[in-house]
UniProtKB/TrEMBL annotation:
Region (Disordered), start-end ranges: 28-57, 108-130, 153-180
Protein name: HNH endonuclease
Alphabetical keyword list: Signal
Signal peptide: 1-21
């Protein structure tokens, strides 16, 4: 074989080897094109709602069947971030914490919509998410709770949250998200995290919010007075 042919053959082998290396297993033994677990939800822009109102009316909900639950690795329910990205209250800012959510004597009881409003919203939102279980076992939940400065009645901040794993049918909601919200509220009022950081963490994925904020030893599980379980 002539020298020129030997060089051409060698070059072809190098090109072929490079292509196989690019398509072959990565350093961890998985093909780059192999299916991977869905990545965690990225931080997203949280809209602002109208804030507390003197009176509330039932807000229109997303179209039936247009919203889809997500689930964490341990099967905890998460909302559809297109339908339910969360919404903040403009009345609650870092500068107004002591006059709002950290106020002595409480704040949320005076801004919560009545059950006559949230009951209809809950029924309509269940259709949005395709929830067909017992309504008494699901919580009509503020994604960013009132005690974290969430908007009281913006439909972007409310979703029918189905029961968590281990739930016993007919026993009402079992919602570990409530204790996360209480822990974050305490951290905000103690200056351990900012309002905006806590709101972003809970809206993105409540199951990882404490870890993202560097908080440990969460508060005991308690019912969240901000949310209606009707």
């Amino acid at each position: 074989m002539s020298t020129s042919r030997r060089l051409a053959a060698a070059a072809a082998i190098v090109v072929l080897w490079g292509g196989l290396a690019a398509c072959g297993p990565s350093h961890n033994g998985q093909n780059k094109g192999a299916d991977q677990a869905a990545p965690p939800a990225a931080a997203h822009q949280i809209p602002a709602g109208a804030g507390p109102q003197d009176s509330y009316h039932a807000a229109a909900q997303p179209a039936a069947g247009s919203c889809h639950y997500r689930y964490s690795a341990d099967k905890q329910p998460l909302p559809d971030l297109t339908c339910t990205p969360g919404a903040t209250s403009p009345a609650v800012t870092q500068a107004t914490l002591n006059q709002t959510i950290c106020k002595q004597g409480g704040y949320t009881s005076g801004i919560r919509p009545p059950a006559s409003v949230t009951g209809k919203e809950k029924s309509d939102n269940a259709k949005s998410y395709g929830y067909t279980g017992p309504m008494a076992d699901a919580e009509y939940d503020h994604l960013i709770s009132l005690q974290l400065g969430g908007d009281p009645n913006d439909p972007r901040n409310l979703w029918v949250e189905p029961p968590s794993p281990g739930h016993v049918s007919g026993k009402g909601p079992n919602n570990p998200k409530d204790s996360v919200e209480t822990h974050l509220h305490t951290a905000i009022c103690k200056g351990q995290t900012t309002l905006a950081a806590a709101q972003q963490a809970i809206a993105t994925d409540w199951t990882t919010a404490e870890a993202k904020l560097g908080l440990s030893g969460g508060a005991p599980a308690t019912a969240d007075p901000d949310d209606d379980a009707n």
